[in-house]
C-alpha cells in the first residue's frame, strides 16, 4: 500500500494549525505507531497550576490519529469516534512523551492505545476508536 499523503505533512510537523499552536512535535511515525512530544509552557497550565487535561488529551488524540494514517489508503480519512482517558498523574511541567499504537485494523474502524509519560512516569493512558472515512 502506498503512503497516505497526510503522513508526509505529519512527518514535517504540519499536522494542523491546532497541533502547531499547542506545540506538538513528531518524534516517529511508522506502521508500528506514532511518538510525539510536547514541551510544557505557561500556556498549558490550568488555574490550579497543573497542566490542563485537555492538553494531555490533545497530545494523545493527535498521536493516535497520526498512527491511524499509517494504515489508511491514500483516498481515506479518519476521525475520532470515541476515546477514553485515564489520568494517572497531575502533570507539573517538563516534557511529555506520547506513544500510540494501532491494536486493531478493521474495515470500518481502528482501535488505538496510547500513553503519555512525564519524566518516565505514566501520566495518562488512552484507548480510542477511529473511523475509516
From TrEMBL:
* Record GO terms (molecular function): fatty acyl-CoA hydrolase activity
Record keyword Ubl conjugation present: no
As recorded in UniProt, its EC number(s) are 3.1.2.20
Q: Which reaction does it catalyse?
A: a long-chain fatty acyl-CoA + H2O = a long-chain fatty acid + CoA + H(+); a fatty acyl-CoA + H2O = a fatty acid + CoA + H(+); a medium-chain fatty acyl-CoA + H2O = a medium-chain fatty acid + CoA + H(+)
Q: Which SUPFAM superfamilies match?
A: Thioesterase/thiol ester dehydrase-isomerase
Q: Which Pfam families match?
A: 4HBT
Q: Which UniProt keywords apply?
A: Hydrolase
All copies of the Thioesterase domain together span 48-120
For this chain, the family text in UniProt reads: Belongs to the YigI thioesterase family.
Protein known as = Medium/long-chain acyl-CoA thioesterase YigI
Organism, scientific name: Halopseudomonas formosensis
Amino acid at each position: 500500500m502506498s503512503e497516505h499523503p497526510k503522513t508526509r505533512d505529519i512527518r514535517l510537523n504540519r499536522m494542523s494549525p491546532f497541533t502547531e499552536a499547542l506545540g506538538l512535535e513528531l518524534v516517529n511515525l511508522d506502521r508500528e505507531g506514532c511518538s510525539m512530544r510536547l514541551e510544557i509552557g505557561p500556556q498549558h497550565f490550568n488555574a490550579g497550576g497543573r497542566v490542563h487535561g485537555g492538553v494531555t488529551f490533545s497530545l494523545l488524540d493527535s498521536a493516535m490519529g497520526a498512527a491511524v494514517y499509517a494504515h489508511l489508503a491514500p483516498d481515506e480519512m479518519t476521525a475520532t469516534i470515541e476515546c477514553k482517558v485515564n489520568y494517572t498523574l497531575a502533570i507539573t511541567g517538563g516534557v511529555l512523551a506520547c506513544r500510540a499504537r494501532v491494536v486493531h485494523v478493521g474495515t470500518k474502524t481502528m482501535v488505538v492505545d496510547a500513553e503519555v509519560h512525564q519524566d518516565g512516569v505514566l501520566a495518562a493512558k488512552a484507548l480510542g476508536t477511529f473511523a475509516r472515512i
